[in-house]
Amino acid sequence: MIKINISTPPIIAKTLAVSGFAASVLLAATPAHAISFNFSFQDTDGGTNGFVTGTLIGLEEGDNPGSGITATVTSSPGGEGVGSGYSFSSTNGSGLAFTVINGNITFANAGFINPINPPFAYALLLGTTGNKGSNNLLTDLATFAYADSANSTIQFTAATPTPVPFEPNPAVGGAILGFCFGAAKLRRNHLAKKRMVSVEA
Fold it and tell me: For residue 119, is the peptide bond before it cis, meaning its omega torsion is within 30 degrees of 0?
């Protein structure tokens, strides 16, 4: 009687181990949290009925205390206050500057200062509807003020996509590809060396 025994090496376990490690490296990639938002509100108090528009940079999903968030004013009814350089200054009693849920700003109560206009400074306040803290305001505290004290016209729209759980980078991508190629080579080598045929009479 001829009996053929084919011994398959534990390559599957090794390949799974390598693949699992590669997956862990992938999941440890740098989180992509930063979101930018466009904003606009109407000067309902100042009488121009024009719009103040701009961009917020540096927000994250969830509660944002404000640190690290900056603002740029891109337009105003009279052209005053336009420019970048607005740094977060304070909230008005809430402790939170912004709340972002599913890529949308649901709460705002933030003040920004731009010291580019000495001896005055441009001030930008942003607040959401129903918020008793900050009113929507752009002013230099002396010569102009564009405001929506009821917070009834404020609009926020995401300027960048909603963040994903991770952000691949070249180093991580190269490591993962290296592990994949290594696993494939390991499988080929072991199949070539470990396949054994024994013949018994």
Answer: yes
pTM tops 0.85: no
Q: Rounded to whole angstroms, how far apart are CA atoms 109 and 97?
A: 5
Which has the higher per-residue pLDDT, 13 or 103? 103
DSSP, res 195: -
In terms of residues, how long is the chain? 201
CB 66 within 8 A of CB 93: no
For residue 153, what pLDDT is reported?
Answer: 95
Residue owning tokens 């121009």: 48
Tokens matching residue 154 = 């404020």
Tell me which of 106 and 133 has the higher pLDDT. 106
| Element housing 71 (H / E) | strand 70-75
Q: CA-CA distance, 96 to 107, in Å (whole number)?
A: 9
- The pLDDT assigned to 159 comes to 92
Amino acid at 193: K
Pairing relationship of beta strands 35-42 and 83-90 according to DSSP bridges: unpaired
Q: Which residue type occupies 153? A: T
Three-class secondary structure of residue 159 per DSSP: coil
Mention every residue, 6+ apart, whose C-beta is less than 8 A from residue 192.
none
CA 20, CA 14: separation in Å to the nearest integer? 10
Contact in structure between 36 and 54 (CB atoms under 8 Å): no
- Residue-wise pLDDT tens digits, 148-194: 999 999 999 999 765 544 444 444 344 443 544 454 555 555 445 54
Give 73's strand partners: 54, 83
